[in-house]
Design a protein that fits this description.
Blueprint lengths: L5 E3 L8 E6 L8 E6 L4 H6 L3 E5 L4 E3 L4 H6 L3 E5 L5 E5 L7 E3 L14 H12 L1
Parallel strand pairs: 1-2
Antiparallel strand pairs: 2-5, 3-4, 3-6, 6-7, 7-8
Length: 126
Amino acid sequence: MGIEDAEHAEEHPDAKNLFVTPLTCSLVGKVEEVKVLVGTRASKIYGAPIIREKFYCNYGLNPTRRVEVEEAGLRVSGLDASGEVRILELPRAHFFFATLFVPQATSTSERPHPMISGLLRSAAAT
């Protein structure tokens, strides 16, 4: 995006251009529903409009920066019940997602996480 002073509130809480800020409440250890937006790559990977994921975070996309991020080419593809961003994707990339949950934390060889399976399918197709 060309913003040289973009910052993360965990490291620089008083910075002028915060793109990552504290969530309204901690999600550490919580399992929450995420609405997967229709027509996104995430919707193709999950095949369901609502998913449940385990979170390990206290920070997320600054809601005041959402429009800028979308105008720069990222697409919001998952939201929590209050409309806060939980999944971003980069449509021009073969496979690029930013999530507030950690897919590998719940993936097993018997039941791989959909994001892990999606990454492997993408890699095999390129």
